[in-house]
Amino acid sequence: MARLEARPEPSRRMMLVSPLIAALAMLLTGAVLFAVLGQEPAHAFYVYFIEPISTGYGVGEWLLKATPLILCGVGLALGFRANVQNIGADGQLTVGAIGAGAVALQFPDAQGPWLLPLMLLAGTLAGMAWAAIPALLRTHFNTNEILVSLMLVYVAYLLLSYLVHGPLRDPEGFNFPQSRMFQPAALLPLLVEGARTNGAFLLSLAAVAGAWFFCDRSFAGYRMRVSGMAPGAAAYAGFSEKMNVWLAFLISGGLAGLAGVGEVAGPIGQLQQSVTPGYGFAAIIVAYVGRLHPLGVLLASLLMSLLYIGGETAQMELRLPSAITGLFQGLMLFYLLAADLFIHYRFKPRLQIVVPPHPRGAPIPGSGETVP
Amino acid sequence: MTEGAVAQDPVRAVPRLQLMGIGKRYPAVVANADVSLTVMPGEIHAVLGENGAGKSTLMKIIYGVTRPDQGEILWEGRQVDIASPAAARRLGIGMVFQHFSLFETLSVAQNISLALDDKVPLATLAPRIQAVSEAYGLPLDPHRLVHSMSVGERQRVEIVRCLLQSPRLLIMDEPTSVLTPQAVLKLFESLRRLASEGCSILYISHKLDEIQALCDKATVLRAGRVTGTAVPAQESARSLAELMIGRELPACRLAAHSPGEVGLAVKGLSIRSDDPFGTDLKDIHLEVRSGEILGLAGISGNGQQELLRALSGETRAPAPGLVQIAGQDAGALRPAGRRRLGMSFVPEDRLGRGAVPELSLAANALLTGHGAQMTRNGLIRFGAVRDFARRVIERFQVKCGGTRTLAGSLSGGNLQRFIVGREILLGPRVMIAAQPTWGVDIGAAMLIRQAIIDLRDQGVAILVVSEELEELFMMSDRIAVIADGRVSQAVAVARTNVQQIGDWMSGGFAAGAADASALQSAA
User: Fold this and answer.
1) Phi–psi pair at B463, nearest 5 degrees
2) B12-36 pLDDT, tens digit each
3) pLDDT attached to residue B512
4) Sign (positive/negative) of CA torsion B174, B175, B179, B184?
5) Cβ contact B367–A226 (<8 Å)
């Protein structure tokens, strides 16, 4: 029997290798799963992971779906580093979409080049405003930001639903709960002909670069990281905890709002009852799979996006159930968490009773004492 | 000394506990190697060693918290395998830990009841607690709530908890670190009485005078190995210290020096604590002049934390003039503002407060050094940060792999040297050091103390807050005492003594105002 022992310090190599192990284990499990479902695994993998991006249009779809994941994931990763748990990015995305959509619908005849920047600004500010609610409640009343940000997601969904049923409904839309289509000047330009990838993808790449710079070079990024790792040290150094919470929420909310603009001013082209299939939640997985590093988030978003569109292809071509997408996402996260164990622990191949290392002050089971 | 029980017929006496060749490795360190130790019935046996010498690991092995990799444990002549603390208690081993784990909102009896292996109704437990505590001179009211008790009284709760199980071996881990000198004497009386009834005591400490006063035998550990055994009464403090640290005890020099103008002043500061179990600060007056070290003594939990926060700027004073740094009102300033006035600060916790364990030493230099030209236009100047970290490492002989080494991988003494060095090299006019040598081995402690004294000689005003009286008498020009949120007059070290400061630590300087809980810790 092998036993686990704590590494003297976390392994940097394992931090990089662990996502690869997780991806490999996911593929292996997937192979077994395909076989059980009566599919030839090699063919199923081809249909799932290769075929969707074998055409220019397919690559475009891949990047298109990755865009909101990147934008939300980068923002969340910055917040998670600072130990600010914003899990309401889907709501901030929705409100960002409303903000941009309201601008477009307000000026139905506008053709000027100012319209799109105004929409981007409105969407970002709307996302920030929505994120400011949990930030305000946390800094003034010490509420739990996880709960508040999550609950506001559903409020945002209902707000959008109300608007497309009422004030923003297309008067000529036969009572369908959706706005009128945006005019061309209110749509983000496509990057290449024949694919739906739009300018938001470039914005997401800029967000990755900007976040990377912010984390590694700026003193504000350093303060956020210290606040996340050691709140006591941040207080000692005089870094404001409130500022930390505000920055984390405004950055992640703003980026999520921007992702919302990318959706309604991109592939959707109008306000509908729902503008997100849960990008803001998938971005939580993306942020952690990407090791809370902007570049990692970029790669993780591409993987997650492939899981989305591969799942759709698999449904159509192999008649697999739609749950297959969620299943692969779940497998990915599950294996990643398992492989992450080896960042802090390693195998010690010897038959021995496992004695977990007792941290100082931890309670000893079955007694009133703690480990000195 | 308790001779009675030890001087049994040598043929008949079976050792209470015998360790033979105990070894324990952790991934990065060998905590114990080939440790052997014999404790006779009724013997008070000292385990002496510096921090990190492996004392705690050895005690955890005896108490069943940790398993040894090698070696045998004999309990009353029988080989045993101590699988858990519960198994240890069944054998008759009790342990009083250095850090207590009592529920503050519960009573003494409730706390003890929770910790007992057998479930005893409270109605029968309370009188037993009273009886045992009185028999050993450790008076306790079983119905009192723990939050109203001083640290010394809480320790009594832990000791009485062990005594209720009629232990035959009691392990005490650094029990005097929370007591006044007077309370230490009381504790020793209780321990001697216990030993005279045949209970063996393993007494862990690095304080030589205590061991000489109390213990029959001593086993000295250094770097996980036994470096010798001794009868403390027959040794000098110097010879014990040499066994413990492997060389002669270093000393630090405090040359006469005339202080200059006031660097740090506190003028009638009162702050109510947010924490229901915290201590309110009451009308505190303090004055530290440049070129002097003011030592602030006190038992932990008497307002030190609250005062330090009020001085560092983490808590703001109710009026700006109540705290003055270098003659300027600083009461309303945040930590960064106070640092700009020339204050630097060594906090009491190294990891998670003075340094971020997951960050490199360079990044930790930036933690408080950011005011000193290490940022420009909101961006970090990495070159300046690394240079500064390198200077700290070189000047203060921090043993590490370089500026990229993670702070958490350094030993306590090394990291403390880095933190003290960082605060010193920032060129302060006022420095506040909280527990600057807590948990640091003697060699490193002397280096740190000398560095602080050198800073004083350069004309910096220094406040040292410490629970170690010996340290304060070694390095202070004047000493004041904090008790129950009040600070005494400061007196020149030459005009006072341990006895007087000990009295003051239990609130004796403000006899009329001191409340009962502060007094009781000495009772």
Assistant:
1) -110, 120
2) 578 999 999 999 887 667 788 899 9
3) 41
4) negative
5) yes
* B403, B423 Cβ separation under 8 angstroms: no
Coil, strand, or helix at residue A235? helix
Residue A203 token pair: 């914005």
Which residues in chain B come in under a pLDDT of 50? 1-11, 511-523
Per the domain annotation, does B312 fall within a domain? yes
- Where do the H-state alpha helices sit in B117-180? 122-135, 151-163
Residues B83 and B1 in one domain: yes
B411 plus B435 within the same structural domain:
no
Of B65, B67, B367, the CB nearest to A371: B65
* Same domain, yes or no: B152 and B215: no
Q: How many separate domains does chain B show?
A: 4
Number of helical H runs and strand E runs in chain A: 13, 2
Q: What is the pTM of this model?
A: 0.77
Measure CB to CB from residue B378 to each of A220, A355, A372 and give the nearest one.
A220
* b/e sequence A141-155, b meaning 16+ C-beta within 10 Å: eeeebeebbbebbee
Same domain as B523, residue B432:
yes
* Closest chain A residue to B313, measured at CA: A238
Chain B contact for A230, CB < 8 A?
yes
Burial of B28-65, coded b for 16+ CB within 10 Å and e otherwise, reads: eebbbbebebbbbbbbbbbbbbbbbbbbbbbbbbbbbb
Contact B99 A370 (CB under 8 A): yes
CB A361 within 8 A of CB B104: no
CA distance A187 to A45: 35
What range does the domain containing B152 cover? 100-165
Choose one of B165, B197, B214: the last residue of a domain. Answer: B165
CA distances from A326 to A44, A52, A281, A312, B96 (A): 16, 17, 12, 11, 52
Cβ distance A236 to B335 less than 8 Å, yes or no, reads: yes
**CA B56/CA B111 separation, integer angstroms:** 24
Say if residue B522 is in the same domain as residue B464: yes
Residue B412 C-alpha, separation from nearest chain A C-alpha, in angstroms? 14
DSSP code of residue B360: B
| Domain assignment of residue B349, yes or no | no
Kindly give, in sequence order, each residue whose CB lies less than 8 Å from that of residue A371, ignoring residues fewer than 6 positions away: A358, A359, A360, A361, A362, A364, B60, B65, B97
Determine whether the interchain pair B406/A371 forms a contact, defined as Cβ–Cβ distance below 8 Å.
Answer: no
Provide the residue type at B215 as one letter: C
Q: Please tell me the distance from the alpha carbon of residue B465 to that of residue B433, in angstroms, as a whole number.
A: 6
Question: Do B76 and B136 fall into the same domain?
Answer: no
Residue with tokens 């003055």: B324
Beta partners for residue B464, in sequence order:
B295, B433
- pLDDT, one tens digit per residue, over A55-107 is 889 999 999 999 999 999 999 999 999 999 999 999 999 999 999 999 999 99
pLDDT at A157 over 90: yes
A219 → closest Cβ in B347, B357, B380: B380
Tokens of B467: 């629970």
Residue B20 phi/psi, 5-degree rounding, is -130, 115
Asked if B353 lies within 8 A of A233 by C-beta distance, the reply is yes
Q: How far apart, in Å, are the Cα atoms of A75 and each of A85, A225, B220?
A: 11, 14, 55
Residues B80 and B186 in one domain: yes
Q: What percent of chain B has pLDDT over 90?
A: 37
Residues B81 and B215 reside in one and the same domain: yes
B408 Cβ contact partners less than 8 Å away, ≥ 6 residues apart: A9, B351, B357, B358
Q: Which of A212-216, A349-353, B277-281 has the lowest mean pLDDT?
A: A349-353
B/e letters for B344-371, b = 16+ CB within 10 Å, e = fewer, are bbbbbebbbbbbbbbbbbbbbbbbbbbe
Instruction: Assign residue B35 the CATH number of its domain.
Output: 3.40.50.300
